[in-house]
Amino acid sequence: MKEPCEVELISVTKKYGKTIAADAVSLGIRRGEFLTLLGPSGCGKTTLLRMIAGFETPDDGRVILGGEDVTGVPPYRRDVTTVFQHYALFPHLNVFANVAFGLERKGAPRDEIKKRVADALELVRLGEMEDRRSSELSGGQQQRVALARALVLEPKVLLLDEPLAALDLKLRKQMQVELKSLQRRLGISFVFVTHDQEEALTMSDRIAVLNAGVIEQLGTAEEIYERPQTEFVARFIGDSNIIDAEVDRVEEGMTVVKTGLTEFSVYGSASNVGEPVRVMVRPEKITLSADEKGILKGKIDSAVYQGESTLWKVTVEGGQELIALEQNRESAASIESRVGQRVSISWPAESAIMLKA
Ligand SMILES: Nc1ncnc2c1ncn2[C@@H]1O[C@H](COP(=O)(O)OP(=O)(O)O)[C@@H](O)[C@H]1O
Ligand SMILES: [Mg+2]
């Protein structure tokens, strides 16, 4: 059975002069899903949100909300609300009035407004703060008021454009947990924008990684991290080693590649035998040992003691450089003494991932 989509972008394109902010993007956001748009500054995240909200009209393609084509429908007639990074509360109004604003404009009855504002403030744990002026609140409290102001309208979809970027690290972590649990309780769809990979990995049901107006990969945190499909995704999320190799042969579900004199298996299906490919291995999947059994051989260039772990730099025979991250079980002195030694380098077979050209 196909899960119902709350939001559907069908081949949506948006250009600003020569800049293609969205390049034929297709994306379905499921009912009750926490979906994150992740990518570097300028990759088109805000543009996609603004097209879902209706603040921008695509040059091409369609926007579907709750099964209805809303491509030409203005923002106030769409069942979505947006929380921005700069949440722009009215500083001279109190918390109640800030949250009530949207309902008042819609002409909701007085009693209903009271009840719904109280409920929304309860949701964001600001039940006691109705009478405070918003200028008297901390950054985190103001962001919660902005959330309540959006939630009080009971949207089917909440759009959040880097809502935590202005908060300090500790508060950001706390708000990440609160937002996620709020989304679970409400069961509505969240489309969350961030350029912070860690934030995306910890909060999302699925992540769409964007690069220059294109979705490079869409998947769960684990899929994106463990099996990136492109070099962009591999490099943008976490640390990665990229090894140049050549397709040697294809076996069941695996490809065997060759680099220098060694060959090893790689997760992913190959193109043509003899073709140059790039293979990714995460630093924490690598084990260095003194024996001769590893997949590759090399020499330790440096070791950085980091408390719980050590970051090794190793040059492989043939000249490529790899980094390895290992949990510390030795003393700093014994780690230091290994610099300059020859090592063999190994990893679990399924941790070597073939990237698309
Ligand atoms: N109103 C606009 N006029 C001109 N260029 C714009 C406009 N909005 C966005 N852009 C350009 O479109 C690209 C994508 O922007 P944006 O969606 O804001 O990216 P992000 O939110 O990922 O940082 C950028 O190159 C940006 O400069
Ligand atoms: Mg943006």
Tag the structure with descriptive keywords.
single chain, 357 residues, alpha+beta, Rossmann fold, OB fold (Dihydrolipoamide Acetyltransferase, E2P), 2 domains, 6-stranded mixed sheet, 5-stranded antiparallel sheet, 9 helices, 20 strands, binds adenosine-5'-diphosphate, binds magnesium ion
Give the structural class: alpha+beta
User: Looking at the structure, what is the overall shape?
Assistant: elongated
CATH homology-level superfamily of the largest domain = P-loop containing nucleotide triphosphate hydrolases
**Chain-averaged pLDDT:** 93
In what range is the share of β-strand residues?
Answer: 35-45%
By CATH reckoning, the class of the largest domain would read: Alpha Beta
* Ions, cofactors and other bound molecules: adenosine-5'-diphosphate, magnesium ion
At the fold tier of CATH, the topology name of the largest domain is Rossmann fold
Please work out how many helical segments DSSP would assign.
Answer: 9
Give the number of domains.
2
Query: Rg to the nearest angstrom?
Result: 25 Å
Largest sheet: 6 strands, mixed
Fraction of helical residues: 10-25%
Strand neighbour order, sheet with most strands: 6-7-8-3-9-10
Q: Uncertain regions: pLDDT < 50 for 5+ in a row? A: none
Label the CATH architecture of the largest domain: 3-Layer(aba) Sandwich
State the order of secondary-structure elements, H for helix, E for strand: EEEHEEEHHHEHEHEEHHEEEEEEEEHEE
Count of DSSP E strands? 20
